[in-house]
Amino acid sequence: MNRFGAVLAAIACLGFIPSLSAQDNLSLTPPMGWNSWNHFAEHVDDKVIRDAADAMVSSGLKDAGYVYINIGDTWQGQRDAHGAIQPNSRFPDMKALADYVHSKGLRLGIYSSPGHKTCAGYEGSIGHEEQDAQTYANWGIDYLKYDWCQSSGTLEQMKIGYTKMQQAIKKTGRPIVFSLCEYGWNKVWEWGPSVGGNLWRTTGDISDEYRVMAEIGFNQNGLEKFAGPGHWNDPDMLEVGNGGMTEDEYRTHFSLWSMLAAPLIAGNDLSKMTPYTLEMLTNREVIAVDQDPSGKQGYRIAQEGPFEVWMKPMADGSLVVGLFNRQRTTEKMTVNFSQIGLQGEVSVRDLWLKKDLGSFRDSYSANVPRHGVVLVRIKKK
Ligand code: GLA
Questions:
Q1: Atom of ligand 1 nearest to the CA of 205
Q2: Could you confirm whether 147 is annotated as catalytic?
Q3: Which end of the chain is more exposed for a tag (fewer CB within 10 A), N or C?
């Protein structure tokens, strides 16, 4: 530790360093859960949410760390005579639904917008921020995705809209994760924390296609300095298990999101998972990459056309390296240890094979399938 570090440590011992804010404490590691939108879109109802909660527990996803069950857009009904938002007929009793989700040891999330309408044209929260936040708190909501959608205005107005909701949430006294969604239009990563965001979308919408997923995921490079405990870049929810990509492509998706310390919000039908999907979503060694307490987001260290090598430093001093092949044929790829600052002998473990590969010097090479990845954790011996 240098002198500055020693002074900081001493001050911290005396309790003078302000702790993370209560809002930060809500997401010390990237949030993990599920959201109805990617699979069910507007066909979401009380039963879909209860089924997802049941499946999250019975499948083992909860044990692997997933906790939020998030209702996406289209749950809203009209406002009553006092302006209080009502759910529509697909959600007969939100409080009972929250109680049910909580009884499973899970948390419930909801969705709204800072404008008059949500993306799907349902009732937004503008002018009703305090009322809506209090309604959510009364129901027992634990997570709010606040989606810009059909709102309009300058960047300053956007910040005001998000701040209003953050203050309204704070006033309720209930801890509610605040998820901003403005698609990265206005460099939200630079100001997201100042409006209380625990996470913020950095991109447009994902879809269940390799091309779209890869473009979003690999374009996150450069945003790593904006992520950390309590505040995360969000390259959108997962598509793993929705059927539009090959197993190797989904493995790329899950590996990349984990290296990015991205929120792991599953978007498939949890009640109908193939063994392969379940195994992927619950791979604890890959999840540990995402959930590493240091909260460092990975970044690209080398690129040669469609071949990309990414690295994520871990709290224990090990390094996770992803060899990503974006080409259409299997290709041999190599990481030179000098590229990741290591010299001498290192041990290498494959996180998808869950296997120690032994000791290596200078470099590690592997055949990487089309659109696939080899993900390894490297430790100095
Ligand atoms: C936007 C968001 C999506 C989803 C839909 C719902 O498109 O980016 O993630 O929430 O709205 O309408």
A1: 8
A2: yes
A3: N
